[in-house]
Design a protein that fits this description.
Number of helices: 15
Strand content: 15-25%
Largest sheet: 7 strands, mixed
Structural class: alpha/beta
Distance between the termini: 24 Å
Shape: globular
Strand order of the largest sheet: 1-2-6-5-3-4-7
Length: 450
């Protein structure tokens, strides 16, 4: 991770540590950088945004920077992160930009950069941008006269992405009652349009964005509302997205939560049965539950483990020709169809498995037995120092020794000023005890900011 760019772009509180000036300079650099590879034509960069109020400010700042450096900016307007990745790739844009802080509250925002292949931008380019932001590189010349860039309304690209999703639905959803929690985010109308087109009877909540309510008690990080919707209306299934709809969690017909690990298990088993699980390997992260690996072992399915971040999952998938990978949080990648996590696509693949197997989501997930996990997000004043502290490390090691058949993971968040603690073992009580001991040490050492 760099000074500004983490595992999922440049993220911070809008106009505090991610300002309009930052966005303008990012645009200035990208317009110049991609223009330096062009001879006789302007670079083309496509931009999408989520529903946060500050997304408009950052969008216009990015556009000003891009056009001032001679790039043409194509505007998708409010759309999802996976749609920007899709359009960047299929329409051969030089770069894609998504303005979003994903699952964070409305006052945060972010700038996600996507390369011409629809993948997360490589660290080298992000490092060059950081040098420019810090004044460590030469000034960038302004474009002049007819070299100045222009903006293009590109809502048609968003509509083609919707058509792409619909084309992936190989079964009719007629007769299926489906709940959708759109988190008041960028999937607020896309998800319903897709499910309606495929014949589902849809029940939608949190689809009235006002710029301030994105992710507020809604979506994949607050799934209780979707559970209530499914139970009260006796729905067949429910799907919850985050603010930019690149992740998806589910609720089965009983109203019980289905995690990203459940999704990986049932999709891997279905794909293997269909002969589509190329290399017979599912790519996971260090946060995946040990119970998932035991379930894969019983099904004869291999797995790989990467650091947290769908960027790392995708890199491994590309290098090793894997078709399925993802995170416990609901970033699921189907590499045959997408280069990034796509919440709505994940929903469609789950529906496909349920319909093809003539089953229910709860039955498809039933063989998976997850270990109890204690997950805690801790606000700290210095992530790196907290992780590296000798006494903290000793407490973590002591906890690991107590957890027979379990594990401890303390890591720095790549997107927020937090450290994330996971304690996992067959004993929920022991998990809680070890977790409290580690938190107490962090507090004693003065790292907790709250």
């Amino acid at each position: 991770m760099g000074k500004y760019f983490g595992t999922d772009g440049f993220r911070g509180e809008a106009n505090v540590n991610l300002t309009a000036d930052h966005a303008y300079k990012v645009g200035r650099f990208l317009g110049w950088y991609f223009g330096s590879f062009k001879v006789g034509e302007r670079p083309k960069i496509v931009i999408g945004k989520d529903t946060r109020r500050s997304s408009y400010m950052l969008e216009y700042s990015l556009v000003a920077g891009l056009t001032a450096s001679g790039a043409d900016a194509y505007m998708l307007h409010v759309t999802t992160t996976p749609s920007v990745a899709y359009i960047t790739r299929v329409d051969r844009f030089d770069c894609g930009i998504m303005i979003s802080a994903s699952h964070n509250p409305y006052f945060d925002n972010g700038i996600k950069l996507i390369n011409s292949q629809g993948e997360k931008m490589d660290d080298k380019v992000c490092g060059l941008i950081e040098d420019y932001l810090d004044g460590k590189s030469p000034p960038i010349p302004f474009a002049e006269r007819d070299a100045i860039g222009k903006t293009v309304d590109f809502a048609s690209g968003r509509n083609r992405y919707i058509g792409h999703l619909i084309s992936l639905g190989i079964y009719s959803f007629s007769g299926k009652r489906v709940g959708l929690d759109c988190a008041n985010g960028s999937g607020w109308d896309i998800a319903k349009a897709v499910f309606d087109a495929l014949g589902a009877t849809t029940y939608v909540i949190n689809a009235e964005p006002n710029g301030l309510n994105i992710n507020e008690n809604a979506g994949s990080t607050h799934i209780e509302g979707l559970q209530k919707l499914v139970r009260e209306n006796k729905l067949d299934i429910g799907f919850a997205y985050d603010g930019d709809a690149d992740r998806c969690l589910c609720v089965d017909e009983n109203g019980d939560v289905v995690t990203g690990d459940h999704i990986l298990y049932m999709c891997a088993k279905y794909m293997k049965d269909c002969g589509e699980l190329i290399t017979n390997t599912v790519v996971t992260t260090v946060m995946s539950n040990y119970g998932l690996y035991k379930a894969f072992d019983s099904e004869g399915i291999g797995y790989a483990v990467t650091p947290v971040g769908d960027k790392y999952v995708h890199e491994y998938m590309v290098k090793n020709n894997c078709r399925l990978g993802g995170e416990q949080s609901g970033h699921i990648i189907f590499s045959k169809y997408s280069t990034t996590g796509d919440g709505i696509l994940t929903s469609l693949k789950i529906m496909e498995a349920v319909i093809a197997k003539k089953s229910t989501l709860s039955k498809l997930c039933k063989p998976l037995r997850l270990y109890p996990q204690t997950l805690v997000n801790l606000a700290v004043n210095d992530k790196s120092a907290a992780i590296a502290d000798t006494e903290v490390q000793r407490t973590v090691a002591d906890a690991q020794n107590k957890l027979v058949g379990g594990r401890v993971l303390l890591r720095a968040s790549g997107t927020e000023p937090l450290v994330r603690l996971m304690v996992e073992s067959p004993s929920e009580e022991l998990n809680e005890l070890c977790s409290n001991e580690i938190i107490a040490t962090l507090r004693k050492r003065g790292y907790l900011s709250q």
